[in-house]
TrEMBL record, chains A, B:
HTH luxR-type domain boundaries: 137-202
UniProt keywords, alphabetically: DNA-binding, Phosphoprotein
Response regulatory domain sequence ranges: 3-119
Entry protein name: Response regulator transcription factor
Length: 204, 204
DNA sequence: CCCGAGCTATGACAGATGTCACTGTTTTTA
DNA sequence: TAAAAACAGTGACATCTGTCATAGCTCGGG
């Protein structure tokens, strides 16, 4: 019997999924959490064979939970179940040791087999998901430097160059250069697109 | 026994929800559809006491289904179940005769009682939802017009004015005016801030 | 020790953006 | 029907943005 922790914020989805999975004789949802903090508390108190993690949640999101688990040395296998095909979140999740990443539109049988595979020590990625990985592999040198990260953060708060310059104690020209660099790395044409990408891909 | 049609695109959510609802002795999910077109086909062939409609779907979304139902004179009561608190969609849905509008984070018991109320001929709106209605009533001048909505949507996709103008078949100057108006209504200083606000407040 | 990477800065430039004032047309509504 | 919105457009203007070339500084690794 596979002992599962199910973490998902929407009550209906969580209860429904728990019900469905419990129908499988090999799977038992032993605990449920509706946000990241609850999940961490449950992980600290009990041991599970696998944690099924939603990404987008209030309080502490899926990545946050993974991060904390790694900090605490928690080795519970994690299968990410999310609505969104997001390359960067995927990469971050895998780097934080997630063992699987599937989209919510998966078929029930596939999900069940994914759970069993992860528990068996395998890695599970949907093909839609591996495509992204490949794309990422092919174009590496796109990492933002610390300063660029900082500037991107400011952009994401809606600051114009002048304000960023004052805040970071730089000249406006310098900030313009950084912004220009960021746009090139993110492969977008203006700050608005950069912010959209940053928000969607959790770069901030 | 209440005969239900359940329309929801994500397999896991749909099956889970069907299972949960069927646990209630008064409710029976008689048919399921995974997009709007399937839903219409089922509605044409069978009769239901209530249709549970997701909003965001491929092929034909919830509003589209409602629209078609009204055109055909289909009086099946509709309860909208959606993830998003979206003022305009809510208003449109109600205008198209939806009898209830609840968010997916509703508790199971509440959902069940909402279904029973709708079947009994009542109207069901969550308080989170009526708040929006009130806000709309109280500050009409801050409401975006349809066109402004459209433009904001384009902004949120990162389009520059020139592209928006071409897409909407307007002059660039007109788009500039609309953008200017949007900025004023959202009380922000540039398009980037507008997009941030739109994303955060689910205005899109 | 030198090279490269990251950070800073400047100036010049083209284009994009946002504001304003003003003019119409159409549609809604009171 | 008359007033009020929404919609479309223009031209002028100031400012913001993004690009490019160039150059100096510092620091860590080979």
């Amino acid at each position: 019997m596979i002992k599962c922790l199910l973490v998902e914020d929407q009550t209906l989805v969580r209860l429904g999924l728990a019900n469905l999975l419990n129908l499988d004789s090999a799977i038992n949802i032993e605990a449920q959490a509706e946000d990241g903090l609850q999940a961490l508390a449950l992980l600290a108190e009990h041991s599970f064979d696998i944690a099924l993690l939603d990404m987008r949640m209030p309080n502490l999101d899926g990545l946050g939970v993974l991060q904390k688990m790694r900090e605490k040395g928690d080795k519970t296998p994690v299968l990410i179940i999310t609505t969104f095909e997001d390359c960067d979140v995927l990469v971050k999740a895998l780097n934080l040791g997630a063992r699987g990443y599937v989209l919510k539109n998966i078929e029930l049988e596939e999900l069940i087999s994914a759970i069993k595979q992860v528990v068996a020590g395998e890695r599970v990625l949907q093909s839609a998901v591996t495509d992204f990985l490949l794309k990422k592999q092919l174009s590496p040198q796109l990492c933002l430097t610390d300063k660029e990260q900082t500037v991107l953060q400011c952009l994401s708060l809606g600051m114009p160059n002048k304000v960023i310059a004052k805040k970071l104690d730089n000249s406006e020209g310098t900030i313009r250069n950084h912004v220009s660099q960021i746009l090139a790395k993110l492969d977008v044409k203006d700050r608005t697109q950069a912010v959209i990408k940053a928000i969607n891909q959790n770069l901030i």
